[in-house]
Write a structure and sequence with these properties.
8 helices
Length: 239
């Protein structure tokens, strides 16, 4: 650019800095094509910002195929100026799926690890939530559009448990489900830093992390209104 305009590279850098331009960076985005996007957006944001009385809002999802990876060398601890280091090489010892429900009222996590990811396991997890919550409260669960959540047996189970209400986020909108934020924490702070000889050891570590989190839970607060979200979406021009 400097050569084509007949100026110095320093001039180009100053112009970039003055206008906060970062040509070396690129970010991706994906817009939902859900025909009921606005309707679902109002529903989910409404649950976050104006939850129903005598109810608990849960953000529910599954973190599937978490690998039990055993590193070929022990973790090298951090030192001044040097971060903790681990080998790239590892041995796989199987996977597990973490079912998690984030309580939007107090930030606690209800979690369970299961070997498979079917409607049978989802019903089992719904039963866990049912047992662990006061029976006089209605339960509103924010979930994605995975087929397991819409299975006919799930619908039958919900009819037998009328205090449960499922709210589906728009397609391609996982950012609307706050439990994804907690999944990021457990992934970066514990799972990726670990070395596991088997799936059982991985599950124990996951449960320990959940127990530790629940001793001092962090409440995740949603602040973006529907109008703010729609304004940002409108700024994205599709050609």
């Amino acid at each position: 650019m400097a050569q084509s305009q007949g100026v110095s590279e320093a001039t180009i850098r100053r112009i970039w800095k003055q206008h906060n331009l970062k040509p070396h960076l690129i970010k991706t985005f994906k817009l939902s094509r859900d025909k009921r996007f606005i309707e679902k957006l109002h529903d989910i944001v409404g649950l976050y910002m104006n939850p129903p009385d005598k109810a608990i809002v849960f953000c529910v999802d599954e973190k599937s195929r978490i690998q039990a990876l055993e590193r070929t060398q022990p973790l090298l601890p951090l030192r001044p100026g040097i971060p903790a280091r681990q080998t790239h090489d590892y041995t796989r010892h199987g996977t597990t799926t973490l079912f998690a429900a984030l309580n939007m009222l107090d930030g606690t996590i209800t979690g369970d690890c299961m070997s498979r990811h079917r409607h049978q396991e989802f019903i089992r997890f719904l039963q866990t939530i049912n047992v662990k919550t006061p029976t006089d409260l209605s339960l509103h669960l924010i979930v994605d559009n995975y087929g397991t959540h819409k299975h006919q047996r799930i619908q039958s189970w919900l009819k037998r448990h009328p205090r449960f209400h499922l709210h589906f986020i728009p397609t391609s909108s996982s950012w609307l489900n706050m439990v994804e934020r907690w999944f990021r924490d457990i992934t970066t702070k514990r799972i990726r830093r670990g070395s596991f000889k088997n799936v059982k050891e991985l599950i124990v570590v996951i449960q320990q992390y959940i127990n530790s989190h629940n001793q001092n839970p962090k409440v995740f607060t949603w602040t973006a209104s529907v109008e703010t979200i729609m304004r940002k979406i409108s700024n994205v021009k599709i050609r």
